[in-house]
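[stage:ingest] chain + small molecule (iron/sulfur cluster)
[stage:ingest] validated
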Amino acid sequence: MKIRLAADLQKDSIVDGEGIRAVLWTQGCPHHCKGCHNPETWKVDGGMEVDLEDVKLALRELEGQDGITLSGGDPLYQPDACYEIAKYAKKLGLSVWCYTGYLYEEVLKDEKMRKVLDYVDVLVDGPFLLEERSLDLYFKGSRNQRVIDVPQSLKEEKVVLVPKYAKERDVFPHPKREEHLYI
Ligand code: SF4
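[stage:predict] done
[stage:export] tokens:
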């Protein structure tokens, strides 16, 4: 099986999920969000085709990473390949975060995308909305997106957010920032 990627596996990221992570930048995204940081990843026939065995080898060779993050592009645009990669990463003891422009509820309704969730710890869902953009959010670009605890959500059959990432960062308290939600 092959997967289309926008770039080589990127190690040592501290902004694409908790801890130190290796990021797999997938190619292809149907959402076309206004203000997207990676529009070059939209084209479904762009990037490069990579054999899954080569991705698995790169995962085996990782050192000093807490987990992998499936990003892009929209990883769930290639659900079969991402299922195999997420499953393999978990087998290696790595945590798995996944970013998607789909809503969690939409993912649940699609059999192939739903299967990927079996091997995902945290899903950051929803499109990037420019009008909801904030620099004070944990691991997401706009307020509408959710950092979802996937195993707990599947267990409780409702969306359960990762509590520590549900609020905004209180980095520089300032009266002018009162409209922000500090819990
Ligand atoms: S889902 Fe992500 S990659 Fe796709 S257009 Fe939106 S912000 Fe860009």
